Amino acid sequence: MGMIFDIKRYAIHDGPGIRTTVFLKGCPLNCRWCHNPEGKAQKQEFMWWEGRCIGCQSCQSVCAQGAISFSDDSLILDQDKCDACKVCVDACNPRALELIGEEMTVAQVMKEIERDEVFYDESGGGVTLSGGEPLMQPDFSQDILKSCKELMIHTTLDTCGYVQSDLFSRICEHVDLVLYDLKVVDDKKHMALTGVSNEIIVANLKELSRSGRNYIVRFPVVPGANDDEKDILEFGELVSSLSNVNSVSILPYHNAGDEKSRRLVNSRTSSFFGHPSTSEQMVEIEEKLKALGLKVQTGA
């Protein structure tokens, strides 16, 4: 069993061709700019859409555990009482309450994946595991990847690389392409921004480069966090020193995660980066990285 919070079909930005992207819940990093904050916690969570709520409080009345209450028109959830039975979600006619996260078997996930095999064949696409961080559920992720390879479906792993090196190597045996996210090179700054050291992330990236596997290093550009001259230069110098780099992908920051953070019930997750990356800024960073001899693409 694994905990999934979304399966996105016809994805075109998570690897080559048309893909099915499976989003696994749980992440060891706590990036304050995260655009999938609902993927951080590995457990199920509730999301409340205030604009849809009509104030009927049906969710509260059907909750046998007494876990739901309202204060100043805001929904409050007592997580110690809640057993995620989903009765409250089913009772909410305007669909203002949503349970994020569903336990699925490998067979259930593969059934969704196999629905679109014809599109993979025609477009050179396949399956991408993303999150959250898929390596937080290593055995489940490995079983999905192995099942895909048995069907000759192209596999991509989108990862932050914060995982034991032997486990990372084992999973990569079943991966055709690794999308490797590197936020900040300076370890102290990485710790301040994400809550963890990046020593193992950098070490795994270097080992990945020596393995001969296909990989793309991705750099999320977050204004006010990792976009100064020093950050860009350190990123470029590290990546240009690696072997067999397919390309670098620089990802513009957007604040779509802010609204989702606010909707997560009782969540302490929030984004403090208020303005998205500009196209002018992305062009400037792209040129700086190209000057270091890197092949750069933006927004993929």
Q: What are the SSEs and their pairings?
A:
Layout: E1 2-11, E2 19-24, E3 45-48, H1 58-62, E4 68-71, E5 74-77, H2 87-91, E6 97-100, E7 102-104, H3 106-114, H4 117-123, E8 126-131, H5 138-150, E9 154-159, H6 165-172, E10 177-181, H7 187-194, H8 199-211, E11 215-221, H9 229-240, E12 247-252, H10 256-263, H11 279-290, E13 296-298
Parallel strand pairs: 2-8, 8-9, 9-10, 10-11, 11-12, 12-13
Antiparallel strand pairs: 1-2, 1-7, 3-6, 4-5
Description:
There is one protein chain. The chain is α/β, with parallel strands linked by helices. The chain has two domains: 2-42 and 103-298, Alpha-Beta Barrel (TIM Barrel), CATH 3.20.20; 45-100, Alpha-Beta Plaits (2-Layer Sandwich). Helices cover 33% and strands 23% of the residues. It is built from eleven helices and 13 strands. The chain has helices at 58-62, 87-91, 106-114, 117-123, 138-150, 165-172, 187-194, 199-211, 229-240, 256-263, 279-290, and strands at residues 2-11, 19-24, 45-48, 68-71, 74-77, 97-100, 102-104, 126-131, 154-159, 177-181, 215-221, 247-252, 296-298. Strand 4 and strand 5 (74-77) form a beta hairpin. The chain is globular, with a radius of gyration of 20 Å.
